[in-house]
UniProtKB/TrEMBL annotation:
Gene giving rise to this polypeptide: ogg
The protein's name in its UniProt record: 8-oxoguanine DNA glycosylase/AP lyase
Any matching Pfam family: Ogg-HhH
UniProt record similarity statement: Belongs to the type-2 OGG1 family.
Site (Important for guanine/8-oxoguanine distinction): 222
InterPro entries the UniProt entry points to: DNA_glyclase/AP_lyase_Ogg, DNA_glycosylase, HhH-GPD_domain, HhH_base_excis_C
Length: 222
């Protein structure tokens, strides 16, 4: 088995330009509250715009689902739709795309509208880990993974997204012990292991996540 750092170095030349592009899109989202995402050639979908609120909704949609489905829904619903569509319309769009938890996700998106100003304030925080604690406390349904996902996608570089792809990568490389569930303690243990890899490779946590996701899926998404 190829050690973690060596495997990341092996794939880096293949996808470095896509990783840099994605990081630039995230940075624009944080600085301007607007960005244009282009996921080609990994997903056959035309570029589209997203703002900070729609990105928080995207992170709700990808939980227990997939990034590809979340991307398709984010494009179809659009910046204005996340803020204005009735819950019933959101439900129908999400259901038709095949999401298993369409009703719950539509309900959460409508509820999140109450927190739009809070999300814009979070984007101005300096420390990602402190911002994550505030999100977990304030946003209904956000755990460490969802909060970290949102923060990374709006330009924070210092938090890790411990999903099934990342945890499996760490387990396979022998960097953490296999666990059946990812508790807060396990999450922070995994994040610490990733911080060491990122430091050794002179990458940010945000960049490292995109490389590992590519190793596990063959795609650079978000």
């Amino acid at each position: 088995m190829i050690p973690a750092k060596e495997e990341i170095q092996r794939v880096k030349p293949e996808v470095e330009r896509y990783v840099r592009q994605r990081i630039s899109e995230f940075k624009s989202l944080r600085e301007n509250n607007l960005t244009t995402f282009d996921f080609r050639p990994f997903v056959n979908i035309e570029p589209y715009q997203a703002d900070i609120f729609s990105e928080a909704c995207f992170c709700i949609l990808t939980a227990n689902s997939s990034a590809v489905l979340g991307i398709k829904l984010q494009k179809e619903i659009g910046v204005d739709g996340f803020k204005s569509y009735p819950e019933e319309k959101l439900f129908e769009i999400i259901r038709k795309k095949g999401h298993r938890f369409a009703h719950q996700r539509a309900e959460r998106i409508v509820k999140l509208r109450e927190k739009e100003n809070f999300l814009l304030k979070i984007a101005k925080e300096k420390d990602g880990k402190e911002a994550r604690e505030k999100l977990v406390k304030e946003i209904y349904g956000y755990g460490y993974k969802e909060a970290s996902h949102f923060l990374r996608n709006i330009g924070f570089n210092d938090v890790a997204i411990i999903d099934r792809h990342i945890s499996r990568f760490l387990f396979e490389k022998g960097l953490v012990k296999p666990r059946k569930t990812i508790t807060k303690k396990v999450y922070l243990e995994c994040e610490q292991a990733l911080e060491k890899i990122a430091s050794d490779l002179e990458l940010t946590q945000a960049e490292l996540d995109l490389y590992i996701f590519y190793i596990k899926t063959g795609k650079v998404l978000k």
